[in-house]
Each structure stands twice: as C-alpha cells, then as structure tokens.
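User: I'm writing a tutorial on reading structure tokens. Could you give me a worked example: one chain, its sequence, then its tokens, then a sentence or two explaining what the tokens reveal?
Assistant: Sure. Here is the example chain.
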Amino acid sequence: MARQHIRTLKRNISKGTRPDAGGSEEILARESALALLERSISFGHARLAVIRLAIAVSVGAEIPAAHWAYCEEAYRRSNDPNLLKMMGQAGQRAARAAVTDARPASAS
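And here are its predicted structure tokens:
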C-alpha cells in the first residue's frame, strides 16, 4: 500500500465523520478505517493498531474478533495507560453500538 493510498484512506475517514457526511461517505470511512487497522496489524505495528482500532470503532466499523484480540494483547504488553484508555473507550463504544443495533425499530 503506497503512502498516497494511506493518505486517501485517512481523508476518507475524515470526510465520513463530518456532520454533513452522506451515507456513502460514512460507509467509505468505515471501510477505510478497517483497511488501515488491518494494515497496522499485518505490519506488526501494535501501538498504531490500537489507535486505529479506536478510530474504526468511532466510525462504526465492524471489527473482527481477531483484530480485537490482537489489540487487547498489544495494549497489555505495552503497559501504556493511554492505550488502556483507548481500548476501554473503544470497547464501551462498540458495546453501546451493539445495544443500539439490537434494539427493535419503534412502531409509529
């Protein structure tokens, strides 16, 4: 993945998080965040993977269980309180999103 492609993925995330972002921009942001997370994991960039996991969760990406496991191991090994905080917040956001997604649509 070329550096320019990485920049494009980051821009996609930024565009997808704007208040006026459309549905297609939000989808692209989720896909881009997941691609960057997967890249960090594949290169063994543990600390960066945790940061990118938090970003991916914040844009609503569906994170595979293996990615969660990798990032949990990464922050445990690092003993970095900032990574611990990021993982905690990402976990809380993911849990809230799962509860919201599981709620039945209200009848009008």
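What the tokens reveal: The chain has a mean pLDDT of 90. DSSP finds five helices and no strands in the chain.
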